[in-house]
Amino acid sequence: MLTYLKAQASSLMASATDFGITIIAANLFGLWYLAASIIGTISGGVVNFLVNRKWVFQSRSKEVKGQVFRYIIVWAGNLAIVTAGVFILTHFFNLNYVLAKVLSSVLTGISYNYIMQRQFIFTS
Known about the structure:
Elements: H1 2-28, H2 33-56, H3 64-91, H4 97-121
Helix pairs in contact: 1-2, 1-4, 2-3, 3-4
């Protein structure tokens, strides 16, 4: 249970990074909302990996390269799911890109990320 709670805290840190960078890239730098979302998702992914490796799953494995490789595979799936969700919700349902990103990210986080990280990346 403690690992799950730590994972949720890690997700909040990663999400704050993701959303902050997405909003700054779109609103301050004028990037297309989808490009901003991709940059935010990648930035949040880096934060998520580092925090999960050290704090959540307390990985002591020397096999960092293998974990990074598996994480990239999982995060590529996350990136594809979130980006598709943002595009569909924004383009076809006319939702604000931030709301679309929140919905896509939350659904992906509770249905995909934790399970894949626990079972595939940071295995004991």
